Amino acid sequence: MPVRRGHVAPQNTFLGIIIKKFEGQNKKFLIANARVQNCAIIYCNDGFCEMTGFSRADVMQRPCTCDFLHGEFTNRHAIAQVAQALMGSEERKVEITYHRKDGSDFLCNTHIIPVKNEEGMVMMFILNFDYILEEDSSDSLEGLNHTLLGSTSDSHLNRYSTINKIPLITLNFSEANNDKKCPSPASSEKTIIAPKVKDRTHNVTDKVTQVLSLGADVLPEYKLQTPRMDKLTILHYSPFKAVWDWLILLLVIYTAIFTPYSAAFLLNDLEEQKRRECGYSCSPLNVVDLMVDIMFIVDILINFRTTYVNLNEEVVSHPAKIAIHYFKGWFLIDMVAAIPFDLLIFGSGSDETTTLIGLLKTARLLRLVRVARKLDRYSEYGAAVLMLLMCIFALIAHWLACIWYAIGNVEKPYLEHKIGWLDNLGVSIGKRYNYSDPSSGPSIKDKYVTALYFTFSSLTSVGFGNVSPNTNSEKIFSICVMLIGSLMYASIFGNVSAIIQRLYSGTARYHLQMLRVKEFIRFHQIPNPLRQRLEEYFQHAWNYTNGIDMNMVLKGFPECLQADICLHLNASLLQGCKAFQGATKGCLRALAMRFKTTHSPPGDTLVHCGDVLTALYFLSRGSIEILKDDIVVAILGKNDIFGEMIHLYAKPGKANADVRALSYCDLHTIHREEILEVLDMYPEFADYFLSNLELTFNLRDESGKVNTDGWTDRHIWKDG
Predict the structure, then answer these.
(1) Residue-wise pLDDT tens digits, 342-399
(2) What DSSP state is assigned to residue 437?
(3) Do the Cβ atoms of 288 and 303 come closer than 8 Å?
(4) For the chain, which has fewer Cβ within 10 Å, the N-terminal or C-terminal residue?
(5) Which residues lie closer than 8 Å to 360 by C-beta, 6 or more apart?
(6) pTM reported for the whole predicted model
């Protein structure tokens, strides 16, 4: 599979952080768009709905003066203070009495916070509501200031409803005179006109600056910008990182080959004695080892500055989070593999030290664990898998050859009868050992080639016997080699085709589908931006569904089992939505069979202005924005519903706004005619459903005529 690039599109994390931190502290707040008349509410959290008794559908698009909360105990001076704060750019706290939907009153502290973009224009208002009786209500923003520190990373923001961006193109303000500023609207009949920018950017208190900025590196002002990254941060998919990974891969392969060879064949050789006498730079191989150690240490430093993709498929670029992620992952293995043990204990000339160096240098082989995971991305190709298996077989044979020589070399001085394989090798090639002359006996080349020949012949179960084990240690090792060889021969070479088909059938399907997509793009000459969107969506959808076509899977089961599966897949929607709670089990099964799940990437337009509204949309994951004339009028999140009230109109209407995904979204959709068909089959459920269906945002163009007789006339229209 290709490397996950993550969600790196330009995005603004300010609102995501605000929503996450406020909801984490059980705050009650709403967000209003400062660029439209009445400063319409575009988002309110569940805490505000619980506090006031109004649903999100009741609150959306209302003026942020909250005149729907006004009542007989609401002080007009407090109303004027709220309106004055919304007309300008000043931060203000106002004590005011509001009334819930049921008529009960409550005293609260309303904190109005203007949010500006990088050009100094007020883009929106955040209104936080705290009960006066709460002890910590006066310190709400101080608590926010404390908890937001160190929270600018993109990670985990989508755990709550996340608002990514609002287009900069929509920064249009009405040309209203300052004289038209009224103290406050007494009712919803009056409107608030967004004044000129210059009137909104004066007299900003130090408290506002402190709360909204919290330092440039902690909480950026609201602006449309690319993710802020440190200059030394390296993208995990950058060309430099790709080249560096290949370089480290080559060094690890070098380490896997030469470290066991050096530890077994060279450390007790005459070259080791020369190195002790003339210094560390005598042997070119030791110089190369030193350079490899340095490269591994540099790799550790680079990993501390390399981004990664988290579980939400977001690119994390915050240095502290990168460091924590690396410490929890591969840091320990990389650190042990990078320690230059021969340098740390250089100068000790004892045999025990030499043996210790050989054992410690084998710790570098731990890096092979990490390389194995990197090579997994190339294991989807059959030829690469076969070559990789061959290389693994040869590498294991090389390691076993080094161990085979080490056993013979350690036993040789202590054997009473010179029957070891090294002594037999010296006799057979005419280079006998003279124990008074350390330089006598076979050369290193003769010993290594013979050891490798023995291990290969033993692993492949072909052994000719011309190199044979004689001592007990050699025989025990030979038994182990034959066991390993039989296992490798049976599991790898005997089943190569079966392994490839079993492990990489999904990958083959992925490449087949990807090839079809590319051929489609090439045949229709789709331009580059749209082509990239198609390819990225296909890759993400494949990772999300693992290439499973749910419709094809369901077709293989009987209808009753299909209904049970669909009921399970849509259980969270049918159980969580109030409109479906009055349905019988049979009705729920019928509804579940008709729901379709749609997966949308960021930036995808789900509904265009003017489209016919043929379905109801239930948002189960992610967040979307609704735009009219490129101005954001609403932000919807999990469990929100949009579309039209199907029972009020005889025919489907047209959308009055665009609906665009802000993050990866999952939507449950049901077509208008299909839900009307279910309501026809279950008339006892129809009245309950239509009376409890609450649209968070009604997309229908209100120029159409409403059928005031409701469900009955629609039913007659359909039958007639």
Answers:
(1) 666 555 555 555 556 656 667 777 777 767 666 666 655 556 667 777 888 898 999 9
(2) -
(3) no
(4) C
(5) 339, 341
(6) 0.51
